[in-house]
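Supplementary material to the annual report.
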Amino acid sequence: MTEQVTPPKGIGSMAKREMRLAYAMLLPTFAIVLSIVLFPLLANFWISFKPVQLADLRQAEIKINEQLRPKPMAAGEDVILRYRVRNSSQKDPVSDVFLRDIIPAGLIIGAVPEICNLEERELSCDLGDQEAGSRLEIKIPVTVEQSYLDAGIRPKDLPMQVSGTSTNALTSFDFTFDNFRKVFASSDFWSVLRVSLYYTIFGTAGALILGLFAAQLLNTAFFGRNVLRGLFLFPYVAPVIAVAFAWVLLLDAGPGGTFNAMLQSMGASDGPINFLGQRSIPFTVFGFTLEFPMALTTVILFEAWRYFPLSFLFILARMQSLSSDMYEAAEIDGATPLQQFWFISLPQLMGILAVLFLLRFIWTFNKFDDIFLLTGGAAGTRTLTVDVYEQAFAVSNLGAGAAVAVVVFIVLLFFALVFFKFSPQDDG
Amino acid sequence: MKLGSVTYASAIIGAIWGGLWMLITGLVLMLVTGIIAQPPIGIAASVGAIAGVLTVCIPLEVRTRRWQILRGLSILIALMLFTFVMPFGISIDNGVIWNLIFVLIWGALLSLSLDLCLGGYSSGKTNRYRLEVLFLRLMKGLGFVLFSIFVMLPFYVMVMTSLKSQQSLLFNPLDFSINFEQGTSKLFRSYIELFTQYDFGTFLLNSAIVSVVTVVITLLLAVPGAYAVSRLKFPGQAFLSRSILLIYMVPAIVLVIPLYAVFSQAGLRNSLWGLLFVYPATTIPVALYMLQGYFRGLPMELEEAGLMDGLRRIGVIMKITLPLSLPALASVALYVFMIAWNEFLFAFMFLDDFDMFTLSRGVVSLNSSEVPRQHLMAGAVVATVPVLIIFLWFERYLVAGLTAGSVKG
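Predicted assembly:
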């Protein structure tokens, strides 16, 4: 009988070591991504179910002001040592408040109130529960001695300890559906969602079409092509604040707006057009009056302007890698240039175009800065992401903002699932 | 002259170029000199159409340099005649020299465009193939001109506004002529005031610190991570290498509220530390993705040889992998720098103190009615110039990085 040789079962010690090493190397990445991306994502769901205002971030606490009144000038004076206790919050109580303080030497202490207890020079007071916004004064009569005046140590100088428990609005178990109810009940919500979709679809399509066109321009070699390629990438590379404000000034409707001045000097428009501030311009086609969404179109145009470089770069890279054989064959068969583009180039670019559309669609939907800086969400340009900011920080309702953010995330998840189901699997 | 598709096409092409170049030279004349012109686009288009037809009517072998000059002169004379010696719609007396220079430029550009578009074509009929070539030449030409203007115009306005004063801009918003006689200190007054009165030196320093530290942290964490994903075997490796980019799909605005709440209570708001937590978290996934793709492309045999010769993993990474992937490291570093430098949302939400502002946050603080707009634009220029310089300097790497990662917007 020969012994059957089998491969070792389970994981060998070498493999184990390699595994441990891999996890160790990935640990920092996991840690930072968990704490800055995944934790906030979950926390956002948590907050969306809570009645939290921006002001609630400051936790309720007890403020105490300690003073000798009137200010002692000579030895032997009788004065009052006064503690002014205040709950800083107007909403939340603080319970089990306890005060501990050391009274400086040279003060002869008279009768202390019932709630307080004096041991040597250490004063401790049980203040019980303090309601929201409550105030309380503790007065202790003292007699001043010369040594106090000489030492120069004032009651404030010695450390005072205050303890008490208050609820943290974020960690309490106080839940509500009000945020979501408010979001869905508001008449704005559906128009905000619609604007988001318009912005995303047309912004993405605009950037892709411009990028495709620009890639066609730079596909053949000529003098100065690299310079032009660098130039075409400027809008994407420059900081968003810089280009957004440049557009705002360029399109300004007031005196000093360059683009309006150009149009008027050409005679193309009668008065200044408020590109970023006007919701819609009515126009008539075949007797129907339609509204042209001016501000929304402008921000979509900005989106296309700022992000066409990205699609341009990818499409150009893909086009340069296409082999010339097919074009030569088509040329011999007499295909015209447009036919060559339509029947040879475009089908081969479909993969990269689909991937770019998918990625740009999601990122455009996520975009906040551009619209926020251009219009602040006014004039019919408020998208869901701008609405999150408006609710949470302009209206100061963190809970409602988080609820809108949840909606953003769910819509996004929906798109992602749809895309991954229907997107082609090649390229990438 | 033979009538036919090329003849009509040449008229249309000539008209488009004549009108377009008149529009552009007229605008540039206004922007550069401050003269208020009313470019006669219709007349220029007619002249262009005639010149276009004339070009295709001349036999190919006659179209020499001498003929081109002759045609150019006729174009200019025609324009002068049709506009009653007011080539830009205004009496030529306001700035004779400028008017003449820009008319010459117009004529030269029109001639050049006609030659580039119509070269090799004669009047009469032609087949579909040649007609499409003609159409594509026109579209390419228009594409180059319009794309360049479309891309450049906001930047041009940005730079020029920063060099002007509020009054002169309100007086004539099209006048971007620069008055060099006022001396450099007056010309660059907005910039000087930004650095002396608005603390832009601090903002610049803060931005530089945050961006550079973000790059360092990102590389320190992403290099081992990417190496592990691309070279070591462990359960979940395939899943990780595919799904790491999903992190990028999470919108920043969803993270802002919880991070704001937690950072407020932890005292991390209003400090650069907070940003140094958040920025690397947003850049590490993409850096890891880009680097693991590159590491995979490196020959495994080199590393195995290193292991055989007694190097430990860390030695292999330091002595073999990293030196081989310097180009990838450079493009990742540049890309991360660009993201951190340009970041707006978190800087805007987290920073309240002027001492802590990054450039993005600082420029936003200039956007108020009390601050003149040339200051705002000077701030925008200050924020843009460093990243543009770096971009132009290392364009090759950055372009490689942008395409390799197939990344973020």
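Strands of chain A lie at 62-69, 78-87, 94-102, 107-109, 116-119, 122-130, 135-144, 160-166, 281-285, 288-292.
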